Amino acid sequence: MRFEEAYSGNVFIKSHPSFEESEAVIYGMPMDWTVSYRPGSRFGPARIREVSIGLEEYSPYLDRHLDDVKYFDAGDIPLPFGNAQRSLDIIEEYIDSLMDQGKFPLGIGGEHLVSWPVMKSVYKKYPDLAVIHMDAHTDLREEYEGEPLSHSTPIRKIANLIGPENVYSFGIRSGMREEFQWAKEAGMHISKFQVLEPLKEILPKLAGRPVYITIDIDVLDPAHAPGTGTVDAGGITSRELLASIHAIAESDISIVGADLVEVAPIYDHSDQTANTASKLLREMLLGWVSKRP
């Protein structure tokens, strides 16, 4: 895929026509090859774009308009169906090019494993990287039923790469006992059940550091986001997630990239989940792109 070529279908609302002039690049990662429960997140990026047409272009939360930030929707990265390793390699190569050109990468998944090659690429440029992770699940397994390439493994992979002490997970309410034990013993930060309040306590400690942020839509309670592959009761509200995005925007961290993953529109015929995701992306664009180094 050539960066300067726009997506052939719908684009995220107010996408800028020029890749070169844009600060940020939105890109889709339509992969769900390794999911352990319900597939369908490969259709998430396209549907989020489609419903974004219904978004207001102005954010009353941030008092900013989408005209205030230039972002280019590059479309979905073409990925070989069913080939997990090759798909991850393609994603990493793509992000390497974005980083070389000084763009802010804003990814849409796809299953959560797609975040792994992105974070790995960002780490090449920012060796003092920290990761903020919002999710229902720990994603700290080393493998799932013998398969190391699984959507249950990306946070363990990035923790092993950058050091567990540099990974901060929030909203976690599901995982194996061994995963929680490993995190505790390794010095990784996990905030169970909540996001906003523990996040506010952590953000000052990350001031000035390059931070990548990955959000799994299932951090929300299924009442707020039923369209996802592995729903898990007891999650946070969309209001709390929005407030968490804004708290990050108001902090002193340097945001070097982000993604929003695991929207599976086939399980939500009302499009509630996709519409929520598109609003979250609007707030991420308006609040986070200006905070890149």
Task: Note the main attributes of this structure.
Arginase, Chain A, two-stranded antiparallel ribbon, eight-stranded parallel sheet
Can you walk through the features of this model?
The protein is of the alpha/beta class and 293 residues long. It has one domain (24-291): Ureohydrolase domain (Arginase, Chain A). It contains eight helices and ten strands. The protein has an eight-stranded parallel sheet, with helices on both faces. Strand 7, helix 5 and strand 8 form a beta-alpha-beta unit. Helix 1 (44-51) crosses helix 8 (272-288) and helix 2 packs parallel to helix 3. The longest helix has 17 residues, at 84-100. It is globular and about 45 Å long. The model has no long low-confidence stretch (mean pLDDT 96). This is Agmatinase. Keywords: Hydrolase, Manganese, Metal-binding, Polyamine biosynthesis, Putrescine biosynthesis, Spermidine biosynthesis. GO terms for molecular function: agmatinase activity; metal ion binding.
| Protein structure class | alpha/beta
Name given to the CATH architecture: 3-Layer(aba) Sandwich
CATH class: Alpha Beta
Task: Supply the number of structural domains.
Answer: 1
Total number of β-strand segments?
A: 10
Helix-strand pattern: EHEEEHEHEHEHEHEHEH
- How far apart are the termini? 27 Å
Write down the overall mean pLDDT.
96
Radius of gyration: 17 Å
What is the tally of helical segments? 8
In terms of DSSP E residues, the strand content is: 15-25%
Biggest β-sheet description: 8 strands, parallel
CATH topology description: Arginase, Chain A
Main β-sheet, spatial strand arrangement: 4-1-5-10-9-6-7-8
CATH superfamily: Ureohydrolase domain
